[in-house]
Amino acid sequence: MNDDASRDMLTTMYLGYHVARATAALPQSTNHALFTVAGGRVEVTLLFGEVTTAIQNSDPVLSVNSTPTPGTVLALGATVDTTSLEIGGFLRVVGAGNLVKSLAGAALSTTYCSFVVPIGTIRLAGGASKQGNMKWDVFYKPLDEGATVTAA
Amino acid sequence: MYSGPTPGASVITDIGKGFRATRATDTLPQTAEEAIFTVSGGRVFITRFFGEVTDTISATDPQLSITTAPTTGTAVVLASTVDSKSAEIGGFLSVEGDGSALVLSLAGAILGTAVPCNCIVAVGSIVLKSLASQTGSMKWFLTYFPLDLGAAVVGTSA
Q1: Chain A contact probe: residue of B74, B100, B125 with most A CBs at under 10 A
Q2: A11 and B118: CB-CB below 8 Å?
């Protein structure tokens, strides 16, 4: 059978479960949760954002962080200059502590490194108040029985 | 609903590397760009991408590269030029998908690369570009997983 659902199943087998977060405005000199991790640890195989309203011509100083329920906040993706990033542009969290920015044509390959996130939230921080909207997608595999990720 | 080619017997490849898309052999573009794949229905995650020489490339470098041509937004170079002059029949040009040069291999094998292809490509075309008009023919192959329901890659007509 070769319908969309069975094709989607193969993506799930390779990359894990898919959770999409709807488009939202950038955090304004604050941070907001993108995803909530519950029930146990997960291995994130792919985490990226896509610009849906062009980012202002001044850097919002975005970063992505893991905020565990007990413990210390960890930067999954430190800031990269996203000034004027176009609609369709990508920010990819590669799990080595940095964000990789791409224009709309493609989010380029990286040295592939999935990463483990404990119970808590994955948050987007804006170091400045700038215009722009993004949507986010995460693919993950549960490492503990019952672990899930949901969009915040 | 997706209505492209049925994976059929390629189940194991599908599970390990994703769905296959092929583009039949064709002469090199002559100082021009030519779409070799079309991405439709949503974003895709490419896991393997290479071309195979089917007619020996000229003794002068055609300066080949691979870029995207998204329906909306700016093109991105997936693989920049590598000197492919005189590449033999069966030789390969591999795309790592990180913007670095195409990786040229002789016919014996495509060796492992430091950056395995795992790029995300948006709706639009994937384009083979040449900066010089040289003889030679190639066919192309890629594997991918759909990231959005209904996303697919299909080879263009040669």
Answers
A1: B74
A2: no
Q: How far apart are CA A88 and CA A91, in angstroms?
A: 10
**DSSP classification of residue A59:** -
Query: Whole domain around residue A87: which residue ranges?
Result: 4-151
- Summarize pLDDT for A46-77 with one digit per residue, the tens: 999 999 999 999 999 999 999 999 889 999 99
* Angstrom distance (rounded) from CA B128 to CA A76: 35
ipTM: 0.85
A95: domain CATH number is: 2.60.120
pLDDT given for residue B8 in this prediction: 53
Element (H, E) at B37: strand B33-40
Q: Which residues of B touch A48 (CB under 8 A)?
A: 120
Put simply, the answer to whether B74 touches A90 (Cβ < 8 Å) is no
Enumerate the residues of chain B whose CB falls inside 8 A of the CB of residue A47: none
* B78: chain A residues, CB-CB within 8 Å: 106, 108
Dump pLDDT digits (tens) for A97-143: 889 999 999 998 887 678 999 999 999 999 999 999 999 999 999 99
B98 closest CB neighbour out of A11, A90, A109: A109
- Structure confidence at residue A112 (pLDDT): 64
Cα–Cα nearest to A50, from A23, A25, A32: A23
Tell whether B65 is within 8 A of chain A (Cβ).
no
Contacts (Cβ under 8 Å, ≥6 apart) of B36: B23, B126, B127, B128, B140, B155, B156
With an 8 Å Cβ cutoff, the interface of chain A facing chain B consists of 2-5, 7-8, 10-11, 13-15, 18, 46, 48, 86-90, 92, 102-112, 137
Tally of domains within chain A: 1
C-alpha distance across the termini of chain B, in Å: 25
Residues of A within 8 A of B76 (CB-CB) are 102-106, 108
What is the predicted pLDDT for the residue at B12? Answer: 61
